[in-house]
Amino acid sequence: MFRQYKNESYDEVVRKLIFLAKTCEKQPKLSQKTILEIKEARERIKKGEFYSEEEAKKILGL
């Protein structure tokens, strides 16, 4: 349920959850906003609305 990728280990998922919990304690308003932005970004990625690394480099002039 919390994994972003099929091959993502549960250790990685637990580390993310711990990080989020600690961040929420320190900066709750920022954390809630950040969590919402992450959810929105994941939905855009699922829809295929993102730039590839090469496209991003070209846009940024790298």
Walk me through the structure.
By secondary structure, the protein is mostly helical. It has a domain at 32-62. It has 3 helices and no strands. The longest helix has 19 residues, at 28-46. The protein is extended, with a radius of gyration of 15 Å. It starts with 9 loop residues before the first helix and ends with a helix.
Walk me through the topology.
Elements: H1 10-26, H2 28-46, H3 53-60
Helix pairs in contact: 1-2
Taking the alpha carbons of the first and last residues, their distance comes to 36 Å
Strand count = 0
> How confident is the prediction overall: mean pLDDT?
84
SS-derived structural category: mainly alpha
- The low-confidence parts are none
Rg estimate, integer Å: 15 Å
Helix amount: over 70%
Q: What proportion of the residues form beta strands (DSSP E)?
A: under 5%
Question: Could you give a short account of the major beta sheet?
Answer: none
- Specify the number of helices: 3
Note the run of SSEs as H and E: HHH
Shape: extended
Keywords:
single chain; 62 residues; mainly alpha; 3 helices; 0% strand; extended
